[in-house]
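Sequence, structure tokens passed on for absentees:
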Amino acid sequence: MVALPNLGPKSQEMISRSGIHSEAQLRKIGAVAAYVRVLQTHPTASLNLLWALEGALTGLPWQEVARDHRTSLLLALEQCQAHADGEHRKA
């Protein structure tokens, strides 16, 4: 993956291990879905990774994302996880 702002080597490794190997893939699925995918392979990943992913995609520092976009990202995360849980129940 191309080096993106806010994403250090450990974050990039976690993202890659979750099956996201390019900036284009990351942009296509978005920060929240990417974070959910990372959680599947790294269940202890912190919310700081979500802030960093969003910051990488928007060009904002992760600290600003955490401060100004926390609520909307957490709501989107809750919806994404609920949708994923519903899909698992159907299977």
User: Anything to note?
Assistant: The chain is about 75% helix and 0% strand. Helices lie at 9-17, 23-41, 47-58, 62-68, 70-90.
